[in-house]
Amino acid sequence: MKRSIFLLLAFCFVSQAQTERRKSVRAWFKDGTGIEIYSETTGPSHPSSIRQELPSGVIGIIHNRSYRLVMDKNQNVLFGYFLDGGNSTVPNAESIRISPIDPAAARELGGRFKYPAGPLPTVDTVREFPAVKIGQVVTLDILFNPSTGEKIYEVIRPVTEPSPAIGPHNSVVTPGGFGDQISLKEIALRVNGQTAEAPVSWMIGDAARIDVPGHGLFIVSVSDPKNPLFNASAQVNRQSLSWVVDGLRVEVTSKTNILSRSETATLWIYHDPRYKSADSPNSVALQTADSVEWLLPKRY
Q1: Which residues make Cβ contacts (< 8 Å) with residue 119, sequence separation at least 6?
Q2: Phi-psi region of 186 (alpha: psi -120 to 50; beta: other; left: phi over 0)
Q3: Which of 19-23, 105-109, 118-122, 231-235 shows the highest mean pLDDT?
Q4: What number of other Cβ atoms are within 10 A of residue 262's Cβ?
Q5: Contact 122/9 with Cβ under 8 angstroms?
Q6: N or C: the chain end with fewer CB closer than 10 Å?
Q7: Longest C-alpha distance within the chain, in Å?
Q8: Nearest Cα to 58, choosing from 72, 46, 45, 47?
Q9: What's the CA gap between 17 and 155, in Å, rounded?
Q10: Does residue 96 sit in helix, strand or coil?
């Protein structure tokens, strides 16, 4: 980003804006509340650097909470926050809560993603929006270029679509997408026949990452990432996903079909046997994203 673009924080409660919109992500919470998040930009209509660098991002679950990270085109984290949603006491509305990412979660995310030295940029305090009606949005300003008047901000809005989860005990995060996506719900995980306890969650995305203590990290992609680190060798058969790499046989069983549209397929797999989380070396971690670039270790 140019030096003239500054990080800023501001919240606004407005009706739906007519501005440039990119791919959205969604999170559903245990009571079935759904929230959509995406980035927009306002300012001059002609192309400019801030528009070309409109951030994308990742949504995931860490420490049983949904988080959002906004990233630039080089996969550097610009900003992050926790996001919670729930039923409102006002009809046709939902409550939205935006919270700072705590230091423990920030340290763990710092082992997975790239961001500048120092604390993870996040909100300074908890912000509560107890009654966001359908058709309204909460906006969070991220970047501003004073020389052009352009601004990049997050848009957070309630959605009426039902949760893809079945039952009241699942939080779900899902990037946008129109083709097959990977679905990992309350998975059973085995490496060379040995069970590794995985977190109870449901995550959906175009690519998925599984960090396994003692075995490094694995990234599975629905489509060819055009990256020589990946090879097409992961096999899907309905609720089962398996692969053999570097002498390891990994088996994943989900309570949903692994793919959202297909029953069988061959997926792309990457393995980094050297990776070890500095903050959670003994815990299996799951992440999903709409691109493998968001999931590769930060040294790449």
Answers
A1: 103, 106
A2: left
A3: 231-235
A4: 13
A5: no
A6: C
A7: 59
A8: 72
A9: 9
A10: strand
